């Protein structure tokens, strides 16, 4: 396993601010119910928008990072590999990469904070539900090549199914530069807005 990469070693090795919460499935002869979000859980993301995304087997989405919104996600069908990489300059876990499997049969909710790059690989057909803390805005979605060496994520696939945008994504260094610039612009906007 490459240095810096943790795999299924518990939450102590997660990038700072990432939260994983085991969810409880209530099952009976009709099927099951799983609560995937409660405001009282205080996980660090209060969704304003909730989306459902289906993916065919072999799909990889990402790698993306957001300047403004956090994600609260739960896999409701299938399996996925979740890859994370901390880009935040002020974070105690800056540069940490983490890869783990999420299985809908063992439901979990995951919160990914601003500045933690993430990608999702679906080895089987899957459905992911995710909420975002700010309304989705394509300008808030920066990305790089899914297999960039700097990400230190050992995806178990050589030729994934990618969106056109992800297939044409730039390099890691460009994503990092754009993230820093956008973060500075966002912070400057908040400061000028608060003094008005």
Predict the CATH topology: Jelly Rolls
- What oligomeric state do these chains adopt? single chain
Structural class: mainly beta
CATH-defined architecture: Sandwich
Output the helix-strand order.
EEEEEEEEEEEEEHH
| Count, helices | 2
* CATH class category name: Mainly Beta
Largest sheet: 6 strands, mixed
| Fraction of residues in helix | 10-25%
Strand content: 35-45%
Strand order of the largest sheet: 1-9-8-11-6-13
Low-confidence stretches: 1-9, 192-196
The span between the termini is 51 Å
Considering the protein shown, what is the CATH homologous superfamily? Answer: Jelly Rolls
Structural shape: globular
Q: On the 0-100 scale, what is the average pLDDT?
A: 88
Summed up:
The chain has 196 residues and is mainly beta. It is built from 2 helices and 13 strands.
What does it look like?
The protein is mostly beta strands and 196 residues long. The protein has a single domain (5-195), classed as Jelly Rolls, CATH 2.60.120. 14% of the residues lie in helices and 37% in strands. It contains 2 helices and 13 strands, in the order E-E-E-E-E-E-E-E-E-E-E-E-E-H-H. The chain has helices spanning 164-167, 172-195; strands at residues 5-7, 19-22, 25-28, 31-34, 49-55, 59-65, 71-77, 79-86, 97-103, 108-112, 116-122, 126-132, 142-143. The strands form 3 sheets. A 6-stranded mixed β-sheet has the order 1-9-8-11-6-13. A 5-stranded antiparallel β-sheet has the order 2-10-7-12-5, with no helix packed on it. A hairpin with a 2-residue loop joins strand 3 (25-28) and strand 4 (31-34). The longest helix has 24 residues, at 172-195. The radius of gyration is 17 Å and the shape is globular. Mean pLDDT is 88; it is low at 1-9 and 192-196.
């Amino acid at each position: 396993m490459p240095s810096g990469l943790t795999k299924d070693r518990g939450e102590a090795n997660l990038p700072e601010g990432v939260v994983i919460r085991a969810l409880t499935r209530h099952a009976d002869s009709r099927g099951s119910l799983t609560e995937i979000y409660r405001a009282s859980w205080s996980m660090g993301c209060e969704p304003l928008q909730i989306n459902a995304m289906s993916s065919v087997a072999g799909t990889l989405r990402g790698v993306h990072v957001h300047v403004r919104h956090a994600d609260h996600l739960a896999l409701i069908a299938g399996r996925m590999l979740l890859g994370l990489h901390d880009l935040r300059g002020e974070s105690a876990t800056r540069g940490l990469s983490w890869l783990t499997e999420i299985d809908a049969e063992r439901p979990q909710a995951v919160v990914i904070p601003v500045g933690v790059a993430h990608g999702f690989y679906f080895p089987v057909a899957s459905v992911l539900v995710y909420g975002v803390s700010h309304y989705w805005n394509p300008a808030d979605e920066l990305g790089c090549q899914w297999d960039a060496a700097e990400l230190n994520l050992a995806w178990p696939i050589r030729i994934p199914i990618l969106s056109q945008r992800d297939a044409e994504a730039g390099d890691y260094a460009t994503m990092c530069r754009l993230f820093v610039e956008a973060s500075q612009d966002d912070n400057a906007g908040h400061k000028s807005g608060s003094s008005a």
